[in-house]
Amino acid sequence: MTINRQILLVSRPKGEATLDNFHLAAPELPELGDGQVLVRNFYLSLDPYMRGRMNDTKSYAPPQPLDAVMVGATVGEVIESRHPDWQPGDAVTAMFGWQEYGISDGSNLRRVDAVRVPMSVYLGAAGMPGVTAWYGLNKIIAPKAGETVAVSAASGAVGSVVGQLAKRMGCRVVGIAGGPQKCAYVTETLGFDACVDYKAGNVYEALRAAAPDGIDGYFENVGGAVFDAVLGNINAHSRIALCGMIAGYDGQPAPLKYPALLLTNRVRLEGFIVTEHLDIWPQALTELTDAIAAGELHYRETMTQGLESAPAAFLGLLKGENFGKQIVRLV
């Protein structure tokens, strides 16, 4: 029998998540049944939304069950199939979670081209983070050429795509990131017009200098003090795509200081969950994959090795220790 190592959630965080919330299990894989497919997961995606799922609170999705495999996207290869539509060697993405193998009836698998685009990228710029960026920018912010678009967590998996797509639309793009190295990457590699280092001082004043004509569209990944600084520089009739609030993921409240600015500037603010908009995924994925394959859309990955590294890498992600998309290599 084959051993399938898994990371389980065994307790809920009280405030900040810790390594003690996770447990490494090693059950045997059951025998494959008729109509089933066995996938060897090559890469595991780590994403901020997972922190919210660890809480037993009402949200857009049910809480992550205790003593069960942690939720998460994977990409890998079919190694055995008793299903007519899937053959050994097929590269596929799925939501198998934090484990080395996955068994499926085929309904949750999506075939990908691992020759045209590296396999791991289907967990980042050519996957859910990329589609999240595409939807928030195109369907909520909907910027016009010449407008200024700002994005927080600009060097991350979502923010980096937002800014590059906005530049392709003819916008002035201002990123917000933590540290000079990340800001240099945002401007020099990704092509943003400016980047504000939120660790370096007064974010409000830095944004005012970077966006002298104000901000017309904002893609929010962080919340907290960064959101306050942006609202102080927002233009009338601006649009905000609210994607994440990582500043409050550990349970600490992060109230806005000046919420009246939303009314004063007649701001359109819309929170969204990209899995509720599956109709746009084919178009978004096609455009993103084409741009990556052509070398027109850049990405960066932080890769850790082995399933056992996932909990520590995830906790680091929540503290901004990763650079680009956080991935765990499982092979």
TrEMBL record:
Transmembrane segments: none annotated. CDD domains: PGDH (cd05288). The keyword Oxidoreductase applies. Pfam families: ADH_N_2, ADH_zinc_N. Keywords: Oxidoreductase. InterPro entries: ADH-like_C, ADH_N_2, ER, GroES-like_sf, MDR_fam, NAD(P)-bd_dom_sf. GO terms for molecular function: oxidoreductase activity, acting on the CH-CH group of donors, NAD or NADP as acceptor. The keyword Repeat does not apply. Residues 17-328 form the Enoyl reductase (ER) domain. PANTHER family: PROSTAGLANDIN REDUCTASE, PROSTAGLANDIN REDUCTASE 1. This is NADP-dependent oxidoreductase. It comes from Pandoraea pneumonica.
